[in-house]
Write a structure and sequence with these properties.
CATH architecture: 3-Layer(aba) Sandwich
Number of strands: 3
Distance between the termini: 33 Å
CATH superfamily: HAD superfamily/HAD-like
CATH topology: Rossmann fold
């Protein structure tokens, strides 16, 4: 089983003993984020123009920290400048 099969994400959650809403998935492919978001994970898309259907979209990996901080503060605006 591999991404973007939803079962792959369910298996990971089972292995680490976490719920989706306790996890963040960082990817460079929006297709791989959609099933994770459906499971409640916070999703961050890096360096891509497909900023729809994700929680945060950042320009580069250096901006991920700011997106995670916003997620932890409960701010979901769909896009993070970075």
């Amino acid at each position: 089983v591999s991404k973007p099969d939803p079962h792959a994400y369910e298996c990971i959650l089972d292995i680490i003993g976490a719920r989706g809403d306790e996890c963040v998935l960082i990817e460079d492919n929006a297709r791989n984020l959609r099933p994770a978001r459906a499971l409640g994970m916070t999703t961050i898309l890096v360096d891509n123009s497909e900023c729809q259907e994700v929680d945060y979209c950042v320009r580069d990996i250096l901006a991920v920290k700011g997106a995670i901080e916003q997620a932890m503060a409960g701010q979901r605006d769909g896009e993070t400048a970075g």
